[in-house]
């Protein structure tokens, strides 16, 4: 019996595709209608709506573009990316058009449901018309093969994370989460040592590891946790409550459709609180980013290099800590990875490639301004790197030809023994279109605040470097590198991090020098070189990295630079092995892949906090450490914040540096930081305390020193003297002065 692969529906014959699509859509509409009349089937609406929104629109676009035989991984990635783009554009169009024809609440369930179903039906019609001559895949590629024995275990990994976080939230037990992280490390070793997990399972392993790491932190608490995500939630509710997106609110994030359109759509159609959309659905989507990294690297090298690159990418702590608090960047990174995949695909038709690159580029622009700016500013120098050798003056070319090996080969030219016609995918028209779309969107939406922000950062950098040179502010990255670590073990972890950057530099040089072996596409190499320079700028240029945080900047650059750490590791290993022939006799060092898997497993154990937790050395894990002061808030703290904001009366609310983020999610207009001098608290104001403040009797005071935030804890009692406690639920308290 042969089962068709549902992830490759666009490769099915048209008749099978037609009936399968209609059956799924009828089931989805029926379940939604049943829930509206009171017959709620547990989980059915949520699952069907998730699949309908996340996959079907993109599959229809792929079919309309007549893109087939892409493989399961690429078909899935492109389908999800195109679906998200369709949803965001649908939300934007609804918000603009419906008020003009009398519908004041375009972001309400009824009108949005009808609109999305209508859009999908139009795409369905276009797909069948444009692809009417397609007869189906000629091979068994569209069929499901028997999964290897390791597949069920890999598929269960995210469920271990779900159960582990439940035990942590309810009983403060972290044993299962600890075992999960150890198991993920073992899987990394198993791949390096060619045990248990065959290459056919690598994509599933990458996705399962990524989703497990995301869920082991995102599902902490029953409320969102982190920093920026609270403001994102506030903007989401500012759309859901009135049913309309006010695109004039002057916040950078208010111009991001990944927040103000995509989350409300998922919330309304799936009938989920937006908190759970951010905690469950967004990690499901974001876990596709390392899968895209794997596929992009695998296409240019091999499956093992692809797996280790993705493993390195997800092991860096920003992936499953800071990014949990940045929903808009999660979506934007998916579009960046998809753009990279299209960029290196030289076999795709030019029209399809252009459509996908512009679509993913625009979707990135409306998802996250910071990532879009970084990508835009990397395109021009990357393009110059590609075309400069072709446009050198003949005199200079002649002089260079007199130098041995000069211009003997272009280091950015395609590798491989057999020459092939050059296909340029990074072209000037694309860069101009991306730049124009960036300018138009950021200068008009949300009062142009996203455009003003980048101008302000540039002005700070220029002033510091060229005007106030006598009092130059050290860059955040440099302060982190030169700062004193908390303990010797943390110093060792810093050395491991620096070593990864050294491997990246070596790998880039090796990829340029040995183009015949490392067949990295020239466009990928050019953008990677610029990303390496961006990393260096984050260390030496004031205000450059601090605008995003150094760790986030490094995380972003790893989207392209991760494989060069693997290439660099292989190059160094082979250089050492060439001098020390006996190295193969050393345990666990039989091949470069074994040595690298061991190194990156250690990297994961440091980043996830497992090592610190075992030895009790200043634990850092968000999941394993349950007693420290973190931006993680319990139900009583949320309840107290809701009560306070409902009473409100537009009076100032004083709160410490950590609880400030919680109140930001309810109303960003009234909270203020507690001052170092308690006497400066205004009369007729409130002071909010969370659980940590009440139990530890401490408050967190923060100060900005150069580009680094410093914090200190002081006695909480000093700030509530002569104040009346007007609310107390044993987890949070409110005082009035």
TrEMBL record:
It comes from Methanoculleus caldifontis. Keywords: Membrane, Transmembrane, Transmembrane helix. This is DUF2206 domain-containing protein. The chain crosses the membrane at residues 17-41, 47-65, 77-101, 107-129, 150-167, 173-192, 204-225, 249-269, 276-297, 303-320, 355-388, 426-442, 525-547, 553-573, 585-606.
